[in-house]
Every structure is written in structure tokens, then in C-alpha cells.
Design goal:
The chain has helices at 5-12, 17-31, 33-48, 56-93, 100-128, 134-159, 163-188, 192-218, 227-235, 237-257, 274-287, 289-315, 318-357, 366-393, 397-418, 428-457, 478-484; strands spanning 264-266, 270-272. By secondary structure, the chain is an all-alpha fold. Strands 1-2 form a two-stranded antiparallel sheet.
Length: 485
């Protein structure tokens, strides 16, 4: 994350209204713009093609296909990308740039292979049981794999600090998708929902291709050290579970409600609860600004304190270590409080805007009954994720794994209970799960503050680790030594 701090500091140091607005806009571009561009492109295609006039079954099949593509592409990539990101950061720090391409290839095979392991059986069922045409199923599968590649390539460009290029490539891909949808539907005469799906798939492939080409232009050498990448997965297995459980926790409450009587089954394959899923989307967007606020403030303030502490640990006096440590944790507490305070007012404003405006566009009834509790839950969830990032800073993988695991399990358990509650409490699982996870993360941060010296200085070993027969514990026989004397 350290890449945008310098840029933001240069923007905000002018202390003018224009610079503040530009800084906020820059933060939005590098954090939420890609997702916003995709959503705008889908809306644009629906409006231009007048999708409301098409058949209900076709619209629902398209909506469920896109929903599943996004959810499961993120879920399938989550176990690998966190460890690959850690490996990339370490080899860049050590200036072993020739090891980046082996890392890229290994991650590429793992992401596509693991994604196909679950994607292919689902597509076979969609074709055989659901009766969906083979070309439609294949196009959806290609879109799913393409989005996995997009998210995977974004990992490398994010580490290389090419946030603007990511947003630019998404804009290019989605503009192309909108234009192609018009061409396929109005010129070639394809069915409208299929033309939208095909256009999105091509757009995702273009984005993935542009990102991969840029990565290959940066890193041309290949050391062939593939085994080192696998060694990182053994070493940082906690990081694998943490990222997977956190991502699973984002959607597990949806999966719970997909098993209730509210669910709708499309072509005997796709399952969804439209009202709950829509409320979840609204709740996420209500609090998405927390990512912008967190990145802006941490990059501008906390990272500098963390850097000073690290420099003191490497070559400073004990007094310097203690001083920088106290300042760092004081800044950490201030950043969390500021994030809660600012995001609360932002979420409150967005919430009232949604409640007032959305009913005029047909979003009301059950959606707005579920929305408030989910909005509160995602508010706490984003604060919890900020705490997980701070645990990553201190390399506390045990604490981050506990946080993500308890969050996921609690969210699932309470969501099951919520299915028997009134509609207004359907989202209580997310709130309780996120609050429980946040509590664990906060207690872990306080524990780190008290035990940071031990956590930092006492985790090494004086002997090189190896495999083989353990040497005897007895060094010498005292009695024999006395006889020799």
C-alpha cells in the first residue's frame, strides 16, 4: 500500500479546496473506480439495448450468470493472491526481479486450475440439467476465467503502483464492451442478453490481456525458480486461510439465505435471493468509501510512523525504539477513530439518500427492509478489515487468521438464526460477525502493543533449520571429564 502515500502527500500539502477535492478523486480512482466502471457499463448496456423489453427468463439468467461470475471469481482467487502478493513484495525488496515471472506463472496456473476445478462441473450441470445452450454456457465460463485473470493481474500492477493503468484498462475494456453489445445486438442480430454477456467477456479478456502485457514489459527475465513460490505457501499457510475466510465471510450470509424459501432457482442451476442480494449490494456501496478513507489516511500518516519504527529497530537506540513504537500505536488508534468518525457521517448521508431516492426507481419493499441492518453490518466490516491490515503490518498472521475465522463462522451461524427472525433483522448476521471479528482484531492489536518487543526481536533462531536425525542432547559426560583431569 505504500505506493500512493507520496502522491497523496504531494496533493494534500497544498492545503487548498481544489487540492482536497483532487486528492479525494485520486483516491477514488485508485480504489473503487474499476468496480464502478463495470457496474456503469452493465447499466449502460441495459439502457441502450432496452433490456427491459426482453423476456424475463433471459434477464434473470444473465443477472445470475454475472452475479456468479463476480462472486466465485473473487472466492476462487482469494486463497492464492495474498501469499503471491507477499512473495512479490519480498522479492522486490530484495531486488530479485528475475523471480517475478516464475511467481506470475505459478500463480496463473494455480488460479486458473483451481477456478476450473469448480467452474467446469457447474457449467456441465448448467448445460445438462438447466438446458442452457452450449455457446451461452461456454461464454459464461470464459467470462468467469477472464475475470479471475483480471483480478490476478491487478495484484501485480497494484504492487508496481500502477493504479492509474488499472483504472484506464477497465475503462477501455468496458467502453469496448458497451460498443460491442450494440454491434452484436443491433447489427449482427444476436439475442440481447447473450450479446451483453459476450461483450462483457470480451471486455474482461481485453483488460486481462492489457494487464498481462504491461507486466511482461516490466519484467522480462526468468530465473526459473518455481519451487521458491511453493515454499511460500507452506510458510504462510495462515495467510492463505485468512484471505479465503475473509472473502467467504463477505458472501456466506448470502449463501445462507439462498437456502431459504425466499430463494429463486434459474434453469435448475442458479440460486439467488434477489431482494437480499440487492440489499447487500446497496449496503456495500454505502460503506465502500471506507476503503478510500483508509488508504488515504494510512498512506499519509501511519505508514510514516511505521517506517520510523522499523528504522529504529534496525539501527536505533532502545530509547528510539520505544519512542517510535509509542508514536506508531498512538497514530494507529487515531487512524481507526478517524475512520469510524468520518465513515459514520458518510454512511449516514448515503443511507438517507438511498432511502429517499431508491423507491422512485422501483427499489423498495423487502429490499429497503433488509438494507438498514446490512448497511450497519458492512460499516463494521470495513472497520474490521482495516484492523486486519494493521495486523498484516506487524506480521501477526495468527491474529489475522483468528479475526477472519471468527468473523466467517459467526456470520454464518447468526445468519442461520436470522432466517427465523423478522425481515428487518435479516442482515444481523453480518453485523454480529463483523463486530465479533473487530473485537478480536482490536484485542490482538492491544496485545501486540504490550508484547511488540518480544514479537519483533524474539522470533528468530540462532541455528539453521534442517531435516535429519536429531543430534544427542548430551554434550559431554561430567564424570569422564573429571577422570581425564
Amino acid at each position: 500500500m505504500a505506493g500512493i502515500g507520496v502522491k497523496l502527500n504531494r496533493i494534500y500539502e497544498k492545503e487548498t479546496l481544489a487540492s482536497n477535492l483532487f486528492g479525494m478523486g485520486y483516491s477514488v480512482v485508485i480504489t473503487v473506480a474499476p468496480m464502478a466502471v463495470v457496474i456503469l457499463a452493465i447499466f449502460a448496456m441495459q439502457i441502450v439495448l432496452d433490456i427491459a423489453r426482453t423476456g424475463y427468463a433471459g434477464r434473470e439468467l444473465f443477472a445470475c450468470t454475472v452475479l456468479y461470475i463476480f462472486i466465485f471469481s473473487l472466492l476462487m482467487a482469494s486463497p492464492f493472491n495474498s501469499v503471491l502478493s507477499r512473495y512479490m513484495s519480498d522479492i522486490i525488496y530484495e531486488e530479485r526481479y528475475e523471480d517475478i515471472i516464475p511467481c506470475f506463472y505459478v500463480g496463473l496456473v494455480m488460479n486458473v486450475g483451481f477456478g476450473s476445478l469448480f467452474g467446469i462441473p457447474f457449467c456441465i450441470r448448467e448445460y445438462l440439467v438447466g438446458g442452457v445452450s452450449g455457446i451461452y454456457v461456454f461464454t459464461g465460463y470464459c467470462g468467469y476465467i477472464a475475470l479471475i485473470l483480471v483480478f490476478y493481474s491487478m495484484l501485480y500492477l497494484s504492487i508496481c503502483k500502477d493504479y492509474q493503468k488499472i483504472s484506464l484498462y477497465f475503462a477501455v475494456g468496458m467502453v469496448l464492451a458497451v460498443l460491442l453489445s450494440v454491434l452484436f445486438a443491433n447489427v449482427i442480430g444476436m439475442e440481447k442478453t447473450y450479446s451483453m454477456l459476450l461483450s462483457l467477456t470480451i471486455g474482461f479478456l481485453v483488460i486481462a490481456g492489457l494487464e498481462t502485457a504491461l507486466i511482461r514489459s516490466y519484467f522480462r527475465e526468468n530465473s526459473g525458480e518455481y519451487k521458491k513460490v511453493f515454499a511460500y505457501f507452506r510458510r504462510f499457510w495462515k495467510l492463505v486461510l485468512t484471505n479465503f475466510l475473509y472473502t467467504l465471510g463477505l458472501y456466506i450470509h448470502n449463501f445462507v439465505f439462498w437456502t431459504t424459501d425466499l430463494h429463486m432457482t434459474v434453469v435448475h442451476t442458479f440460486v439467488c435471493v434477489t431482494s437480499y442480494d440487492m440489499a447487500t449490494c446497496l449496503a456495500m456501496f454505502t460503506n465502500i468509501s471506507a476503503s478510500v478513507i483508509f488508504i488515504s489516511r494510512v498512506e499519509m500518516h501511519f505508514h510514516e510512523r511505521y517506517k520510523l519504527y522499523s528504522e529504529a529497530v534496525i539501527g536505533g537506540r532502545y530509547m528510539d525504539v520505544e519512542l517510535t513504537k509509542n508514536r506508531m500505536f498512538r497514530q494507529l488508534g487515531e487512524e481507526l477513530l478517524s475512520l469510524v468518525r468520518i465513515q459514520f457521517f458518510v454512511s449516514l448521508i448515503v443511507y438517507f439518500v438511498c432511502v429517499i431516492i431508491l423507491p422512485q426507481f422501483g427499489f423498495g419493499g423487502l429490499v429497503l427492509k433488509i438494507y438498514p441492518c446490512l448497511a450497519a453490518g458492512y460499516f463494521v466490516l470495513f472497520i474490521m478489515y482495516a484492523a486486519i491490515i494493521f495486523l498484516y503490518y506487524f506480521n501477526d498472521l495468527t491474529g489475522s487468521l483468528l479475526t477472519a475465522g471468527i468473523f466467517c463462522v459467526t456470520t454464518m451461524a447468526v445468519s442461520i438464526v436470522a432466517t427465523y427472525l423478522p425481515e428487518i433483522w435479516y442482515g444481523i448476521g453480518v453485523f454480529v460477525g463483523a463486530f465479533t471479528g473487530w473485537t478480536v482484531a482490536y484485542l490482538r492489536i492491544r496485545w501486540l502493543e504490550k508484547n511488540l518487543d518480544e514479537h519483533t526481536f524474539c522470533r528468530g533462531t540462532m541455528l539453521k533449520k534442517g531435516k535429519g536425525k536429531k543430534p544427542p542432547s548430551k554434550v559431554f559426560d561430567r564424570g569422564e571429564q573429571n577422570e581425564v583431569s
